[in-house]
Design goal:
With 293 residues, this protein is α+β, with helices and mostly antiparallel strands. Among the domains are: 52 residues, no CATH class; 132 residues, Trna Endonuclease, Chain: A, domain 1 (3-Layer(aba) Sandwich), CATH 3.40.1350. The chain has ten helices and 15 strands. A five-stranded mixed beta sheet has the order 9-12-13-14-15. Strands 1-8-4 form a three-stranded antiparallel beta sheet. A hairpin with a 5-residue loop joins strand 2 and strand 3. The longest helix is centred in the C-terminal third of the chain and has 19 residues. Bound molecules: zinc ion. The site of zinc ion has 8 residues, from loops.
């Protein structure tokens, strides 16, 4: 590894390490889904139901992730539709105020006849989000996009996206419960996402191990500590952090010093080693645990 790394790869964002983003990119690479299309929900917002289903994340999280991935060129935007938006806050939901209507020009009036939508001409609109009042002519067009994988980045993304399905299937075959990705409410009340959560018994309510994975083109710095904080917040018997390719010396020194964090750190040179490494350690940990109980 290492030799053929381009500067482009090195600049890849930490976004790729989010478990929900990994799952989405995997679905795109496998062509399980080819286009993420917007749909208008009952609240009058455009949402991405398919992406939400795959990622298991909130509407807000999914929209932000899609936009960030498009900004980084991993996804490409395609214009799906254009709607009128509030010039102040960008909200696309309005009330139409019928009082004090301005007179529309004769040309405008002619258009009104053509379309019901045009009856908004000259009207005062009130956005629902922040109650900004503006005339229809002040509204700004807002493009609503659908998203696709940037085919030019396919091979690059393939190198970064883990295929944990073989591992998940092997663990489930043992009769374990495996959540992938896993969403767990911490003691603080905050919800956390982990790459995997494992219970050694299918019907068990408790979590025996949570696992997070960070993949990077260079040694992972102390930003990895944030994952430790997250792990501390959840009730799980064992907490594992797997980093590819390694921790930086600084990060390792910090982890060594704060042993009380009670988080196992694993280092794998490449993504291809992850499945085997995790299978082995989880199996060993389960043996110890099952012997104890
Ligand atoms: Zn507004």
């Amino acid at each position: 590894m290492g030799e053929e790394k381009s500067s482009e790869e090195a600049s890849f964002s930490p976004l790729l390490n989010r478990s929900d983003v990994q799952v989405l990119l995997k679905a795109l690479i496998d062509n399980a889904v080819s286009e993420l299309k917007p749909e208008l929900n009952q609240a009058g917002e455009f949402i991405y139901p398919e992406a939400e289903k795959i990622m298991g994340s909130s509407t807000r999280n999914v929209k932000d992730a899609l936009e960030s991935l498009a900004d980084e060129g991993i996804l490409v935007r395609e214009e799906s539709t254009t709607v009128l938006a509030c010039p102040h806050c960008g909200d696309i939901r309005f009330l139409v105020d019928l009082s004090g209507t301005q007179t529309a020009s004769p040309e405008a009036r002619a258009k009104v006849i053509e379309s019901i939508v045009s009856s908004l001409l000259g009207r005062r609109l009130i956005c629902l989000a922040e109650k900004h009042v503006f005339h229809e002519g002040e509204g700004v067009p807002k493009k609503i996009y659908s998203y696709k994988l940037n085919e030019g980045k396919r091979s690059l993304v393939e190198k970064w996206v883990m295929d944990l399905k073989p591992l998940v299937e092997a663990l489930r075959a043992k009769g374990w419960r495996v959540d992938y990705p896993a969403r767990i409410i911490g003691r603080s009340g905050v919800e956390h996402v982990f790459t995997l959560a494992v219970s050694y018994r299918e019907d068990s309510d408790s979590v025996d191990a949570v696992i997070d994975i960070i993949v990077s083109s260079k040694p992972v710095d102390e930003s990895a500590l944030s994952i430790v904080l997250k792990a501390m917040d959840v009730k799980a018997d064992k907490k594992l952090l797997l980093v590819v390719p390694s921790l930086s010396d600084r990060a390792r020194a910090l982890f060594d010093y704060y042993k009380t964090y009670d988080v196992y750190i694993l280092e794998c040179q490449t993504i291809s080693e992850i499945n085997d490494a995790l299978f082995e350690i989880l199996t060993s940990l389960a043996k110890i645990k099952l012997r104890e109980t």
